[in-house]
Amino acid sequence: MSWNNQPSPAPSRPRWARKRVALPVAAILLFAGVGIGSAQGEDAKAADGDKPTPKVTVTVTAKPARVKDTPEPAPTVTVTKTVTAKPKPKPKKSEEAPAGTAVFKVWGSAPSGVDITYGSDGENLDGSGLPLTRKLKVKDDALYYQISAQLMGGGDIRCSVTIDGETKTGHARGGYNICSAQLNGDFTGGWD
């Protein structure tokens, strides 16, 4: 016991034991201080108005508004007309070519003129003007009958020669082209 009537002091701990407790407590206080300090830093930023705002993306799909002043297009109407081609005018065979007669014809358009020659192998005759129709008596010794019409710078003409119901025709268009038709005698006395 002690002499003074005072309680005796607690036994003291060794130094190494004190360090064992002091170091972990200091570490905990350090981490707690850092955590509190960083939390206050964020609060200060929020108070300054630098708080990050969330980004919002809005996608709107809508049809464009119709303009009321623009009329709608009218429907398209297609009209198709079928035209039947007229047959080419042919000279009348039997009516205009009596037996034993050769009929020569030239018709169409020749604004610059046309030079016409017709006849058989034994005679060539000249004709002029459109339309042209000429008749000749068929000779027994003739080998062929022909007609030739040359355009003088443009036009569209047709020509024909008819004997005993047989007809040959020709056609010329533009420039100085020639319309030509010819019937040849055969050995039986006919024409082709």
TrEMBL record:
Origin superkingdom: Bacteria
UniProt cross-references to Gene3D superfamilies, sorted A to Z: MmpS1-5, C-terminal soluble domain
InterPro entries assigned to the protein according to its UniProt record, in alphabetical order: MmpS_C (IPR038468)
Protein name (database record): MmpS family membrane protein
Species annotation: Streptomyces antimycoticus
Source species taxonomy: Bacteria, Bacillati, Actinomycetota, Actinomycetes, Kitasatosporales
